[in-house]
Predict the structure.
Amino acid sequence: MLRATLKSLLARKLRLILSGLAVLLGVMFVSGSFVLTDSLGRSFDNMFANSLSGTDVIVTADPAINVSEMEGEPVPGMLTSADLAAVRETTGVAQAIGDVQADGARVIGANGKVVATFGPPRFGGNWTGEVGGRELREGVAPSAANEIVVNAALAKKAGIKVGDQVGVLTTQPKQTFKLVGIFGYEGRLDSRGPVTEVLFTEPVAQKLMLGKEGKFTSISVTTAGGSDPVAVRDALKTKLGKGYVVQTGSEAAAAIASGFKEALDVFNKILLGFAGVALFVGIFLILNTFSIIVAQRTKELALSRALGASRGQMIGSVLVEAVVIGLIASVLGLAAGYGVGALLSQLFASFSEVQLAGVGLPLAAVISAFAVGLIVTIIAAIMPAIRASRVPPVAALQEVATPDRPLTKLTVSGAIITAIGSGLIAFGIAENVWLMFAGVLTAFIGVALLSAFLARPAVSVLGRVFSWSVPGKLGRLNSGRNPRRTAITAAALMVGIALVTGVNTIVTSAEKSLRGSVAEEFHAELIVSGQGSPGLQPTFDGTLLPRMKQVPGVTAVSAEYGDQAMIDGKPGWVSVNTDFPAAVKMFSLSPVAGSLAQPGPDEVIVDDDSGHHLSDVISVQHANGLQKTYTVTGVYKQGEIYGGMVFGSGAIEGMRQQLPSMAFVDLSDNANEAAARKSLEALLVDSPEMLVQNADEYLDAQSAETAQFLLMIQVLLGLAILIAVLGVVNTLALSVLERTRELGLLRAIGLGRMATMRMITVEAMVITVFGAALGLAVGVGLGTAVVRGLADEGLKEVVLPWEQMGIYLVLGAVVGVIAAILPAIRAARTNVLAAISYE
Amino acid sequence: MTIAAPARQITAAAARADGVWKVYGTGEAQVVALREVSVELQRGRFTAIMGPSGSGKSTLMHCLAGLDSVTRGQVYVGDTQLTGLNDAGLTKLRREKVGFIFQQFNLLPTLTAEENILLPLAIAGRKPDRAWFQTVIDTVGLGDRLSHRPSQLSGGQQQRVACARALVSRPEVIFADEPTGNLDSRSGGEVLNFLRQSVIDHGQTIVMVTHDATAASFADRVIFLADGSVVDSLDDPTAERVLDTIKRIGADH
């Protein structure tokens, strides 16, 4: 039996290669993401292992604001000179160095622009000598207040050399320093990943980066000869008491690296999610292939049954085929995944300047490759295997093709499953994201089952477009021949298209809602803002505000300061507005209680959604450690675009950056916007990160970011669509094979090669356009459900991305043409003579 | 004595093979299917090609119909020389000058009987001559079955649809490959009668390959092949004379 199975497997190379390819691509995606995250993870390990070389014990303070990555950036706590003295007194400590290191030191390059890092921190700190792997390459260490050194990669990027005057933005407005030296890191590195470093003398670093002299972010301890770092660590713990974190150098390095790895883990999960979608689509393809194989082998299977094979053996024979395909595809997919993972690691490394620690093959990649490859193929083969076992032995003797079974059962179960899926989605939106995902998958399966019922009318409608020519008409009729096959092939394409359409609908609706709200509620002309990292936003010099107000045409400037803080013990955001009454007008805010006049230094105005009431006292622990209380003096109705707590000016001294990050500028009706903008830009010349934009430009810049996000999703779902296209190729190739005689007949009675190819192409296009249309419909449904579910979040109306949807539909047709190429060539090459001979 | 213009000679026949060799394989494995075969299929006549299995009768028909290439020699359909035509040329020839009736799988299952009949014209982009179409379906007696699909027709009806399809484009010549091979004798007789009738009534040229003496007796002329060569021919055959000839050839070879 096994021998017979393997033989028939070999006899069906083409279709097995195609279904194997689907599994292979999915496995490749899965193992590739493991390989990528593994090699990046080890690279980070290496990078941080030597950042603490020579440091035996490290002391830091408990974080001032302890939030998870999801809630924002944790704000590190600060140490004092007294702490440093205490550490130095501890037995076993040979040397203790106070370090200053904080994000937000932005170097203005030779071209006048701030050197960007796309997210990773731009550290500013104090030069503590050639420790922690730093090596002075050129020049000297900074010894005067106006001297700095930078790491070699930063110097290169900024285009600056020793002796240059360099502008640096910190928590203070731009200051100019003399670059006196350039340093690198142990192992001839120019940088540690994309992170940049600007080092000042200690007091300057403390003032510019931490806001106050005498503060440190950590203390690096070298133990006296013979002292065990663990013992010294414990001694320090005892000495310092609560509020401090004391770690050995290796513990600290591991902790830093694990922070990066957490982010990598999230990244890995996202990639695996997309791989999951691709594999889900792969299941459709394999299921279809096996169904067709079983249908075509009816005689062979019946003969085996007649010769005494049991039903179990029949199921076994199909499952063995599945296992063999799954194994082969897993091995090849793993190999391909290793290649893709290695390639992406290289790309990532060269893009982000991370020294790659060599590409390995993690066990997780191997296990997941085989698990995924085998499970997916077996799941897909079970139904066809059971069907194979039901072939009656008499079928061998009869000259009948398998009759078209009625679709009633399929349609009813499809409708029920779709309803269950929709229910899960509706319930899940409000309750549980995972429930919603489960609903989406269930709905996909339901729609896939329903699609067989939809195939006939859809094909006949779509086909009308092509029916003007004989090949077109024949193609249309062919695609309507086997609704199950057409449906499942189209359904595979549906999944990818539905997901991109769904996401697109949500994004478009959100953007439209935002634009609508802005048009309705925002009544200022210009916005001064800059793009920054989530923790620290670019800022500008607050002393410019009075001069900005004096620009001809400007009637009001409402500037915002902001930082994270713990508000009543919970992480939150503190903002200060320099002219709240102006903001009230600009954002059409209306009072609910109290007054919306400018809050006093220790007062705060809240929105009606905050849960606070007039005269409540709110206690705030600011990011720099300052503790303060504020009294609520006003409550306003939260707008669609403006909300949150607006503190009095007293909150500014608790912020890490005591500078405004944004300003809304109102112009008089007859003001010259262009001239005003020019004057504002001239004032902001020392803050090259800040842009002066009108509302539309500001929104366009935001849209550009969401467009990038959409593009990324489309690329990642591209794999699922690619697999679906393989499915179309497979279905067509099998159809061509099955209809060899018909093709021979058509060729004999005068159908030309080109016409034959056109016939196959139309068949393909009908399938793919049907799939795309189905995907659009399901995607719009999903998107609408989510938008409705998020109505409370300010998504007011469902806006369909018509343009994109049109593109997807055209893409569906194009994909059909591409999928048809090989099968069409094969059909056109049909040997007429061989096709019509019957012996 | 003047040399007759070759063009005249060519148009005298509906199809013609001239010193045709068909050789498969090379060296040891070489098989000669046709050996210096020259036949002329007269216009407006019903010719049967007979012979035992492996005699080359199907190969000859395939070569004459442009479905297979010849190794040596010339083949003409009407005044078109087939040898040397590329695929596009052969497709055009099949579309315009040749009709086919096969033993089975004659019809596209997705099309109705009428659509199947009109398919060659549709492919060629020609408008059907409605009167002629009516004549043809009257002849084959399918008037009430035109909207049926092949799966709803009996084997005999399917072959009649195939006959109608071959006739409707009024080709230079119709090639029928064992058209009654899969039919019972009554349905087979009906099909052969239509073919015969179309020769008599409309001057259609038909070439039929068969191994059935009764079928061959419907033809005006029977050509006998054995071992790749024409060995005999009979005009106005009867079933008995055909059988006698076959027996004699069997004894000779």
